[in-house]
Amino acid sequence: MSKQKLELTWIGKEKRPKLEPRILLEDPEKSYHAKHRVTDNDIFDNRLIFGDNLLALKALEQEFSGKVKCVFIDPPYNTGSAFTHYDDGLEHSIWLGLMRDRLEIIRRLLSEDGSLWITIDDNECHYLKVLCDEVFGRANYVGSAVWQKKYGAKSDSKYLSESHDYVLAYAKSKERMTVHRLARTAEQDSRYKNPDNDPRGPWTSGDLLRNEARDYAIYEIVGPSGRKHWPPEGTSWRFTKEKFAELVADNRIWFGTKGDNVPRLKRFLDEVADSVPATTWWEHKDVGHNDEAKKEIRSLFESNLFDTPKPERLLKRIIELSSLPGDIVLDSFAGSGTTGAVAHKMGRRWIMVELGEHCHTHIIPRLKKVIDGEDPGGITQAVGWQGGGGFRYYRLAPSLIVNDRWGNPVINPEYNAAMLAEALAKLEGFTYAPSEVLWWQHGHSSERDFIYVTTQNLSAEQLQALADEVGPERSLLVCCAAFHGVTATKAAERWPNLTLKKIPKMVLARCEWGRDDYSLNVANLPMAKPDPVEPSAQAETSRKKSRKASAEDASQGALFGEDE
């Protein structure tokens, strides 16, 4: 019988966006760094990106594929509730499609030993689990933790009072991933006592029984009080009679304060590991709850700004399980910025993406307080955070291709020469790295393969001079407005070290140009139809467009030169 791959199906699953790999533009005015180093391990090159998170993930793909150790996302739960900062009521199929598109890029961004952690509730958890099985492979499912987000019942609940969310964890490659252990807590250590004043210190006791009958380990034990003990039927002692005698001689067996209890094995605190594995039950006392998260936000902004913030202790648990200091942590649904704040305090490099205006009004001020050492809340005291480091602020560049007043696709006039060269380098799979010596080297894909971008029309003489300078040991992709004096076929024969492509024809069919929002917001969905325009209004709009001739049209004209 052949094995069949089980997949989740939904309406529109086959539709996949042709994402434009945008470049990122840094805004130094919004970037922020500490005035001096606090420690030698301060990290200054963290990234805060303003823009649609699907486009931002695509923008990061070329530089960060295989480099991100931990991705945490807290996506809209699709519960039907209207939240302040996003509409969380997408139709189920649309939600799955939008999540699938993000998960596929996230998987490519993860390092081979990296992992993804997602907070989600009952409404979509089980569908998301199957979707993640499909994207990551079911064998790479690490597990799901139950987070106790509320510590009391909601008295007006009609059915069951919801008190938990799930944390789904997936590995890029489970065989290569390490889930780190947690440090022992004072509460765990407090379970060790020393009722017999053993000089070896505090201890706790464990069962001596084995849940199977082994003849060599079935024998009578006589306690200090004279009471006799036999293992119950179907069981046996864990040790042979000889080994048990050695343990008694070493004061490793405890019969109780009166000496007549069933014997138990003593385990000393200084003999146990200083760490423990995480369980799948995350109590609020260990990782925080919703109210704690809201108090953290109020302490920073003096108001309730977010409906479902996550407590810093929850992010600390996820980050310490999945990464080490210096690793990259990514959150593409930044929300209130908790992930970046916690990762920063824990010495991780971080990348966050947020489209909402609260990126500027709340995330940046929060991060500034962290960097300046003026955020005493959250995990600050637990990790001994004193400030330092910094981040660079980026925004997504506008779409490379726009339509001119006649509806023809042209290079966006907002792009200068450097932006155009970087954008085309990214589209062609080159690393943008302009040479300070060779004017024609705008980027490279190897030590001998380069790219050159110009809005000029190149003549045969110019191409010959370029080919001579490149030389036979190197190759150059030439992206230009047009070339004349030779056909593309003849050019390939005449200059084998050059590959000629025309702008913007070379990229027109590759992407969905001009679309800036793929967010999980109902208002931005592609299937939403625009309101009908009255004939008179439509005519007026057309007249306005026809009157909007501008100087930029002339500058774009060169981009559509024909071969001569």
TrEMBL record:
Keywords per UniProt: Methyltransferase, S-adenosyl-L-methionine, Transferase
Region (Disordered) residue spans: 186-205, 526-564
Pfam family, one: N6_N4_Mtase
Ranges of biased composition (kind: Basic and acidic residues): 186-199
EC top class, as a word: transferase
Positions of the DNA methylase N-4/N-6 domain: 68-361
Catalytic activities: a 2'-deoxyadenosine in DNA + S-adenosyl-L-methionine = an N(6)-methyl-2'-deoxyadenosine in DNA + S-adenosyl-L-homocysteine + H(+)
Family membership noted in the UniProt record: Belongs to the N(4)/N(6)-methyltransferase family.
Protein name: site-specific DNA-methyltransferase (adenine-specific)
Organism this protein belongs to: Pigmentiphaga daeguensis
